[in-house]
Every structure is written in C-alpha cells, then in structure tokens.
Design a protein that fits this description.
This protein is of the alpha/beta class and 325 residues long. It has 2 domains: 142 residues, no CATH class; 135 residues, no CATH class. 38% of the residues lie in helices and 14% in strands. It contains 9 helices and 9 strands. The radius of gyration is 20 Å and the shape is globular.
Length: 325
C-alpha cells in the first residue's frame, strides 16, 4: 500500500506546507530559482482527477512537488480518488499535502469549535461565515498504475505567442509606458513603466516582468485594495511581502499562458526577507498565494473584458517583436 502520510493536524498544516516551500526556496537559492519558476509545461497547471484546477497555495505546493520529483503529469488525486477510477497508487509512494478550505457559518456569530478560520465573509443578519483548513494527501498520475489510461485526460498544452501574451496583459487596462530605464508600477498615477524590449535578455523575461508589474497594479485601492501595495514604502518587510505576491502572480499568469517563468537575479535582494517572513510567520505564504491568485484572477477577468476598469486609461502600443536573446 502507498505511504499516505497521515494529514497533519490543522494546527500543523501551515507549518508543514511552509517548511516544504522554505526547503524548496533554499534548494534553489544559489541560482535564484524559486518554487514558482517553471517551464510552462502542463505540470504547472495542476488539476485533480476530475479536471478541477488547483489554485492558491495548492498550486505552489504542487509546482514544488512536480519540480522535485520530475513529474510529467499535471494530474493529482487522493488515494481514494485514484481508486475510484480504477487506479492504484504504487507501494511506497509518498504524496503531497494540499489544503481544502471549509466554510462554516453560525447565526450567532460564533465559529464552530476547532475551526482554524480567520476570514469573515458572511453578511450581518446571516451570521458570520469563516473558513478553516483541512489537509489531504494527493498523488501524481506518475505514481499510479491505471487500468484505463483514458480515465484521466491531461490538460492540453497551451501555445501562446509572445505577441499574444503582451496583448493579453495590455488588455487588463492598466496604462503601460515603454522606454524607462527600469520596470516599476506607480500607484499614485496608476501606471506601469517598462524598459524598451531590447533591454531584456529574452522576450519571456519581458512578458514575466510586465505580468509582475501588472500584478502590482491589481492591488490599487480601486481594484483589490491590497494593503501591502498601499504601505509599500513604509517598511522593507511590507515591501518584500508585496513583491512576493507580484512574483507568484507573475508565475501563475505565465503558467496559464503556457510560457516559462525563469529566475530574475534582481529579485535576489528579497530572498533573505522572504525566508525571514516565512520562517517567522507560517501563514505568510498562504496569504501571499491567496493574494497572488486573486491578482491573477483579476488580470484574467480584466483582460477578458478587454477594457480594464474605471482606472484603466488604455496603454501604449505593444513594442515590436524582437528576437529572444
């Protein structure tokens, strides 16, 4: 029978997941490679056996797991889920811990005993709804013997050109100006500034950098109102948290587009801060991943609408295509 590794108690979920990601960060530190850097392969768009995509912290955990073990499949499932479709997890295989959020609502405003929740979402008069975390162990398709190979359909590869990716990000509606010496977002005027295309080592670097800056813009007070963007210049630790959100969001967007997300040496300055934050606050990576997912969802919604929001004043023309270095 597979080594299922009993899921940790709720109080340990945060520590278990954080420890895994800290180890992955430390393992790649010499090359500035983080758990969210990837090749754009389908493994970076993980889904369960029913085809439902993983999001937030689970996406990061499964990215790190796939990278560490060299998995070629992006499909994961619990022992019972695989068994339910005629699969058998191989003896001795170890799974990855993912988190399922359960919502509890109480009309008297109290949270049920044992809940780990910290999010209020209910309306007054209906009581408060809060979420708590449960951990489950999942196994990759590569760890499973499956009688019917067609029982699981892998997500098809995504083929997005550089021009399509740049146009997609531009449609989010946040103004973009090219020609500056460095990439940054200014919240006071709600605008992204970017160097010329030739300043980047490759077109992939250009797209991932633009996604990073658009991610910052998603946190504007009129959009997601992210506190780490609002207080960006107050403390270095707050700045590091906001950069972590933008970095993870950029990786999510690149994965969604099927494009590789590569290490950026200029972010090495934040490495020590990120590790310090994660070691001192086991919930920090959960918060960052949730905020990054919210930012990615906003970018997709805004780009799909094609007009951004009331702050979006359009964008400069997408720079001409260049040969990737």
């Amino acid at each position: 029978m597979a080594s299922s590794h009993r899921a940790p108690a709720r109080s340990d979920i945060y520590a278990t997941v954080t420890a895994q990601l800290v180890a992955a960060i430390e393992a790649g530190a010499g090359e500035w490679r983080m758990p969210w850097h990837h090749t754009g392969a389908p493994t970076m768009r993980p889904a369960n056996v029913m085809g439902r995509r993983y999001a937030g912290i689970n996406r990061l955990v499964l990215w790190a797991t796939a990278e560490a073990h060299g998995y070629t499949s992006g499909t994961f499932g619990t022992y019972q889920q695989w068994k339910g479709i005629g699969g058998q997890v191989r003896k001795g295989e170890s799974g990855a811990h993912v988190v399922l959020w359960k919502r509890i609502e109480s009309r008297n405003g109290d949270v049920h005993a044992g809940s780990d929740a910290d999010t209020d979402t209910g309306d007054e008069g209906r009581g408060r709804a809060r979420c708590f975390a449960r951990s489950f162990v999942v196994f990759n398709r590569d760890q499973v013997d499956l009688e019917d190979a067609g029982a699981v359909r892998e997500a098809p590869p995504v083929d997005t050109s550089i021009a399509e990716a740049l146009a997609f990000l531009s449609r989010a509606g946040i103004p973009i100006e090219y020609g500056l010496h460095d990439a940054h977002y200014r919240a006071d005027i709600d605008k992204v500034f970017m160097p010329e295309r030739t300043a980047f080592d490759s077109d992939l670097d250009l797209v991932s950098t633009l996604a990073h800056e658009i991610a910052h813009g998603s946190g504007h007070a009129a959009r997601l109102a992210r506190e780490t963007l609002r207080d960006y210049h107050k403390e270095r630790s707050i700045r590091a948290r906001e950069e972590l959100v933008a970095e993870i969001c950029s990786a999510m967007i690149m994965a969604d587009l099927g494009l590789a997300c590569t290490p950026r040496p200029d972010h090495a300055a934040y490495l020590a801060s990120w590790l310090s934050i994660l070691r001192h606050d086991v919930r920090a990576i959960f918060t960052a991943a949730a905020q990054a997912q919210a930012a990615a969802d906003w970018i997709h919604a805004a780009a799909s609408a094609g007009q951004g929001d009331e702050l979006g004043g359009g964008h400069d023309d997408v720079p001409p295509l260049a040969i990737a270095a």
